[in-house]
Amino acid sequence: MIVNDLPTKLLDGAYTKGEWSLENYLKKGGYQAAKKVLAMPRDPAANNIPALIEEVKKSNLRGRGGAGFPAGMKWQFIDYKAKKPRYLAVNCDESEPGTCKDRVVVTYNPHRVLEGILIACHVCGIEDAYIYIRGEFVVEFEHLVGAVAEAYAAGYFGSNAMGSGVRIDVTPHRGAGAYICGEETGLLSSLEGDRGYPKIKPPFPAVEGAWRSPTLINNTQTIALLPGIVNMGADAWAKIGPERNSGPMIYCLSGHIKKPGLFELTMDVTLRELVEQCGGGVLNDLKPKAIIPGGSSMPVLRVDGQPYTNAKGEQVTDNYDIRMDYDTLKNANTLLGSAAVIVMHERTCMVSALYNLIRFYHHESCGQCTPCREGSGWLEKILARIVRGEGKTEDIDGLLSVAGQMSGTTICLLADSAAMPAGAFITKFREEFVHFCKEKKSMVENAIRL
Amino acid sequence: MAFAFNEETRKQFDWLLKRYPTKQACLLPGFRLVEAQLGHVSQESMDYLAKELELPPSFVHGVFTFYSHYRREGDGKYVVQVCHTLPCALRGAHQILDCFKEHLKLGVGETDAAKKFTLKKVECLGSCTTAPVVQINDDYFENLTPEKVRDIVLALQNDEKSPHISNGPTLEGGCKGMMPMVDAYPKGR
Ligand SMILES: Cc1cc2nc3c(=O)[nH]c(=O)nc-3n(C[C@H](O)[C@H](O)[C@H](O)COP(=O)(O)O)c2cc1C
Ligand code: SF4
Ligand code: FES
User: Fold this and answer.
1) What number of C-beta contacts closer than 8 Å exist between A and B?
2) Which residues line ligand 3 (CB under 6 A)?
3) What is the CATH number of the domain that holds A357?
4) Reported ipTM
5) Is the pLDDT of residue A171 over 90?
6) A183 CA → ligand 2 middle, Å
7) B184 to chain A, closest Cα gap in Å
8) Pick from B125, B73, B120: which is nearest to B100 by CA?
9) Which member of B69, B91, B168 has the closest CB to residue A139?
10) Alpha-carbon distance B7 to nearest alpha carbon in chain A (angstroms)
């Protein structure tokens, strides 16, 4: 079911030229939610701060950065009374292939992000917020900075934020081209002025993050959804979309699709509806073959209706009519991730597609952990050999074995992000890998160049 | 050539120092200021930043080389970055790369003798729904076709404003990657 006429959308009227200004935002009731929250005293005796955290929990807001972690739960881990500075890092690094929503949110709706920052900061007792935005996004950064300047001029930030008596400052911070800085601890290392090396958890950033202080890290979209929750009330907001999968979701539709783009819908939508109705169908009216539902790190779905043998040795088929929410996809052994839907049609060679993805992960591995650095390197080398027509059928199990040794053995999840797609591509399209190794050429006739 | 911040970048740098709890945190923003002043980050400017931030020069150099997006000494005036990650590849990134190679007469990773163009292959630029995508300096070029590539190269060869820029609405008097309006939001401490 496609529901796009829903309240508290991020891609609202501002999603057109030049409407991102404070003036326009205020006309639409902007900053009312922040005003309401900042008017509450941060006095533990008043007990209203824990009540607000309860509200966020009740809303079922799940992090839009990839893991789908409940935002309220993360907030609860921040010791909001401790006499230590606390920090907020808004993740706008956006480098997961297929994902391009945060960019649009900060360009067209920057004040929603800033209002969300005010709310998160006040509730968690944070005085300094940083927005970590990837270095390539120059125009996006300028928009953000323009909006920050407007918000400061209006007195929303500073030593007396919105007249509340508390200090809340925000600083946009530019990255410089490294996927790993999207990983939360890598982001913090980079923010501190170091190489973007992820750190071992625990301690989790909520306990010991930036500058060894409690740090809240949320995705840009997660933060931007907060004003809507405060305005509507958590109970009403939680009812948008299917149970436990609440709120608007921005699906990024890319690849072999007639009308690629961003679609902000409830999570009632099915994969087929996204492709056929939102995206206008598959490019050149070809048949869809494989679709990655949540950004390149997530296991691919086989949608040509053909069965494959899963890890348990059972013959199964993937469901093209699957509902695109967190829980349904998880039950289908894949993940919604960042809701970046990458469509591949029947003329795509799965071996070459995987080779392209693994090259990405090898390039982006920060190199700290041997299984990730060497594992992704080996996957790339073996795949390159197969694609050159020099592969042997033993290579296929070699790939699976290398991928198996990468999961769960490293500091961060980048290694898993490479291993997961490798496992899924090979399991679900094994015949293509076998064919390439045996016949020294792709099984796909007339395959597109990748 | 020795490097030092000029009046404007110094003002920004001093202001940045107040925005973070440590000096080291100003390293990445510092590289950006150097870029804005010099057009790239030089060895001398790294030594300068090291001194300003009280960091070992080798550390500063190590951090700099970790990141791929800063402009380096010897890069051309126009750095052409062609995305070739899966979503772009599915929509013909290789054809676009071939067009740039042909028109610029450059291979991947090369810069021409006149230091006008550098051609690079890069990973996902975060604009997959408008693939294929190329970034040239600060500008994004989206939904590219061979015809658009030809127009773009022709304009840049003549140092004219390029057609087909898809940056969306830009800010009046844009900040060119720096923090503008320094005084508009002083730190409230
Ligand atoms: C390799 C890797 C890359 C990531 N990249 C991003 C990213 O670009 N943007 C993002 O918001 N989260 C990214 N994440 C997820 C973050 O670590 C973190 O979970 C998220 O920012 C938390 O925000 P949320 O709870 O609001 O989703 C990445 C994670 C990993 C392991
Ligand atoms: S898993 Fe990979 S990217 Fe993550 S810390 Fe280890 S080497 Fe770096
Ligand atoms: S793959 Fe090219 S912009 Fe994402």
Assistant:
1) 194
2) A 97; B 83, 85, 87-88, 124-128, 131, 133
3) 1.20.1440.230
4) 0.95
5) yes
6) 10
7) 6
8) B120
9) B168
10) 21
Read off the pLDDT of residues B132-178 as tens digits, 9 standing for 90 and up: 999 999 899 999 999 999 999 999 999 999 999 886 544 433 334 44
CA A100 to ligand 3 centroid distance, Å: 9
Instruction: Report CB contact under 8 Å: B86, A191.
Output: no
- pLDDT value of residue B176: 41
CATH number of the domain that A154 lies in?
A: 3.40.50.11540
Our answer on whether the CB atom of A372 is closer than 6 Å to any ligand 2 atom is yes
Q: How many CB atoms lie within 10 A of CB A330?
A: 12
Whether residue A228 sits in one domain with residue A136: yes
Residue ending a domain, among A216, A238, A260, is A238
Q: Is B186 a residue whose pLDDT tops 80?
A: no
3-state secondary structure of B18: coil
Comparing B126-130, B156-160, B181-185, the range with the smallest average pLDDT is: B181-185
Is the Cβ pair B188, A137 closer than 8 Å? no
Residue A45 pLDDT = 74
Interchain proximity A158–B185, CB inside 8 Å: yes
Residue A25 CB partners (closer than 8 Å, separation 6+) = A14, A31, A109, A111, A112
In terms of domains, do A268 and A232 share one? no
Q: Output the six-digit token pair for A263.
A: 């679609």
Same domain, A295 and A325: yes
CA A67/CA A225 separation, integer angstroms: 16
Please provide the size of chain A in residues.
450
Structurally, how many domains does chain B consist of? 2
Q: State how far residue B76 is from chain A, nearest Cα, in angstroms.
A: 17
CA dist A376 and A380 (Å) reads 6
Residue B176 placed within a domain: no
What proportion of chain B, given as a percentage, has pLDDT over 90? 80
What letter represents residue A378's amino acid? W
Q: Which atom of ligand 2 is nearest to the CA of A367?
A: 7
Whether the per-residue pLDDT at A43 is higher than 90: the answer is: no
Tell me: do B112 and B146 sit in the same domain: yes
Q: Which ligand is nearest to the CA of B91?
A: 3
